[in-house]
TrEMBL record, chain A:
The gene is pstS. Part of the ABC transporter complex PstSACB involved in phosphate import. CDD domains: PBP2_PstS (cd13565). This is Phosphate-binding protein PstS. InterPro entries: ABC_phos-bd_PstS, PBP_domain, Phosphate-bind_PstS.
From TrEMBL, chain B:
It comes from the Bacteria. Its main location: membrane. One of its GO terms (cellular component) is plasma membrane. It is a multi-pass membrane protein. It comes from Salinarimonas soli. The gene is pstC. This is Phosphate transport system permease protein. The keyword Transport applies. Residues 86-314 form the ABC transmembrane type-1 domain. SUPFAM superfamilies: MetI-like.
Length: 339, 324
């Protein structure tokens, strides 16, 4: 009797573990930046009777490795792959949501949205060329703001991240000497300053070190009330980061300029455009081995484009403009051979 | 009575032997346990082999010597040198030992020789609780609580004192009093290794026959003389073994260090940000592709060799004591 009940319990447990492994399960892996919104979408999609989507935020590099090895149905990356890389692995790439990177500051006496900076200045601060807050070039942009004669401590992300990738591509775009000496990527060879792990590490260091500057994702800065600076965009306007200025940056972009929508959204034209904007991308094989899983993945993203905007906005991401979504349906999703 | 029990037991054992030995159960059992032991060796050999294979492209690119001594870590140009990370690893571990070992010895000597009975239990459990705190907790606590304290009460006053003094100033002056850096990581590591070193040392001191101690007191030695001339020489080598085990932990600790070490690819001064091998791997592995990935595995290979040799030395020292 006792044994029978144990066996029954074991059987139930086995069934509980076995049940989720149905054919419709979709596994994806990659970028950490969009993880909150993908998790939210997956939860809502499941609640509406869709497949179970399991997204592991292991980092963009890991996502690219996994989709190349075909161990997941879709990979996710913050820095888009180039056309030849996509072609080599037979991958389709498309963006899902937009986000922005904001320069956060800790200068005694200077409040949020008070300090005005340009991309060239930020690049020179991070290269150690502009050493103090009362530097002539900063003072010229900020009449009326009392800037201390204190050394600037730049703070960067020590872990490889898409945030750094977007930030450094912006700096490389606006500063030729940055491009030449440091380039852009998920981490660069930072000449000065100190690193914090993750958004929280950068934010904590900036908070502790007076007269420091750092960069974090917009959602993180907003939710934690970290003071940030305004930036001058390509049109010469000083803008603050928010969903409107991110959308403005995406509105004027020519998405068909690069294969797999892999254009840079940094330093876009437009009076309202926030200069450090970026998209995050999904990678799926054109000819997937597990056709069923890939079909489910495509269905999931179709659903998310249709129903996910509100959820993304609630988490401080910016949905893609409708025209871009239409383009993605026609040029990317349709290429995936799932039938 | 005892004889009866023995007889009954031996009878039972004979019956058991008869039942089992026929089917070669003994031999099967021997092979099975041998296989379990071999699995450990196989896994170890597999790890070493895959690390060497994985790190090979990085070693080949820069040369073994070049990789170890190079100090540039530039992902965009694929130039990798491990020296700042190796130096940071050794520096943080050394600081941890310098701070942690005297405290651990103090704890062990206090617990075995001096503590009143009512205090022994609480102190011993507190030390063991320290060992049970997960390293991520040390990391978060270090970053959010301890680092601001270091900045305010250690770096800032120290800066005022040492500024401009040659050599001392170079070593102790912090350009950015942020609280994170090599020194902070070393202090956190010291807290993390104390429970290991202290409890092993305590066990070693406990094993010393009390007759030695009592006779030393009997000829009029003070407590200090007993500890210095009787206990420590007796437990000597095994204390070194305990320290080596602590060193092994300090070298490989990842999460706590990553949070507080400052993560800069250089080693300029004690209080300045630096990096360790483990923190570099933790930071970059997720996003690593191509040669960078190989370079990280090569770093892991170096760390593995360093930790492995430390542990072997510790084993040998402890083994030597047991023989005597």
């Amino acid at each position: 009797m006792k044994y029978r009940s144990i066996i029954a319990a074991l059987g139930l447990a086995a069934a509980a573990f076995a049940a989720p492994a149905s054919a419709q399960d979709v596994t994806g892996a990659g970028a950490t930046f969009p993880f909150p919104v993908y998790a939210k979408w997956a939860e809502a999609y499941r609640a509406q009777g869709g497949a179970r989507v399991n997204y592991q935020s292991i980092g963009s590099g890991g996502g690219i490795r996994q989709i190349r090895a075909r161990t997941v149905a879709f990979g996710a990356t913050d820095a888009p792959l180039k056309g030849e890389e996509l072609a080599k692995d037979g991958l389709v790439q498309f963006p899902t949501v937009l986000g922005g990177v904001v320069p956060v500051i800790n200068i005694p006496g200077v409040e949020t949205r008070q300090l005005r900076l340009t991309g060239e200045l930020v690049a020179d601060i991070y290269r150690g060329e502009v050493k103090a807050w009362n530097d002539k070039r900063i003072a010229e942009l900020n009449p009326g703001v009392t800037l201390p004669a204190a050394n600037i401590t730049p703070v960067y992300r020590s872990d490889g991240s898409g945030t750094t990738s977007i930030f450094t591509s912006y700096l490389a775009e606006v500063s030729p000497s940055w491009k030449e000496k440091l380039g852009s990527g998920t981490t660069v060879n930072w000449p000065i300053g100190q690193g914090g792990k993750g958004n929280e590490g950068v934010a904590a260091t900036v908070k502790q070190v007076a007269n420091s500057i750092g960069y974090v994702e917009y959602a993180y800065a907003k939710q934690n009330n970290i003071p940030y600076a305004l930036l001058r965009n390509l049109d010469g306007q000083f803008v603050a980061p928010d969903d409107k200025t991110f959308a403005a940056a995406a509105a004027n972009a020519d998405w068909s300029a690069a294969p797999g929508f892999g254009i840079s959204l940094t330093n876009q034209a437009g009076a309202e455009a926030w200069p450090i904007t970026g998209a995050t991308f999904i990678l799926i094989h054109k000819e997937p081995k597990d056709v069923k899983a890939a079909a489910e993945a495509v269905r999931f993203f179709e659903w998310a484009y249709q129903n996910g905007d509100k959820m993304a906005e609630d988490l401080d991401y910016v949905p893609l403009p409708d025209a871009v979504v239409e383009q993605i349906r026609k040029q990317a999703l349709s290429q995936i051979k799932v039938k | 009575m005892a004889a009866l029990v023995e007889k009954a037991m031996s009878g039972e054992r004979q019956a058991l032997n008869r039942r089992l030995s026929h089917g070669g159960f003994d031999r099967a059992f021997r092979w099975a346990s041998l296989a379990s032991a071999l699995i450990v060796l196989l896994v170890l050999a597999g790890i070493i082999a895959s690390m060497i294979v994985g790190g090979w492209p990085a070693f080949r690119e820069a040369g073994l010597f070049g990789f170890v001594t190079g100090s540039t870590w530039d992902i965009n140009n694929d130039v990798y040198g491990a020296w700042p990370a190796i130096a940071g690893t050794l520096a943080t571990a050394l600081i941890a030992l310098v701070i942690g070992v005297p405290i651990s010895l103090g704890i062990a000597i206090f617990l075995t020789q001096l503590a009143p009975r009512w205090l022994k239990g609480p102190v011993a459990s507190a030390v063991e609780l320290l060992a049970a705190v997960p390293s991520i907790i040390y990391g978060m606590w270090g970053l959010f609580v301890f680092a601001p304290l270091v900045a305010a009460y250690l770096q800032t006053p120290l800066n005022r004192v040492v500024e401009g003094i040659p050599i001392v100033g170079t070593v102790l002056y912090s350009r950015v009093p942020s609280g994170t850096g090599i020194m902070t990581a070393g202090i956190i590591l010291a807290i993390m290794i104390i429970p290991f070193v202290a409890s092993i040392t305590r066990d070693m001191l406990d094993q010393i026959p009390s007759v030695l101690r009592e006779s030393a007191y009997g000829i009029g030695c003070t407590t200090w003389e007993v500890v210095r001339h009787v206990l420590v020489p007796q437990a000597g080598v095994s204390i070194i073994g305990a320290i080596m085990l602590g060193l092994g932990r300090a070298l490989g600790e990842t999460m706590a260090v990553t949070f507080v070490v400052g993560n800069a690819n250089r080693l300029t001064a004690l209080f300045d940000p630096g990096s360790t091998i483990a923190s570099r791997i933790a930071n970059e592995f997720n996003e690593a592709l191509g040669l960078q990935l190989h370079a990280l595995i090569a770093l892991g290979c170096i760390l593995f060799l360093v930790t492995f040799s430390v542990l072997i030395v510790a084993r040998l020292l402890i083994a030597r004591v047991k023989v005597h």
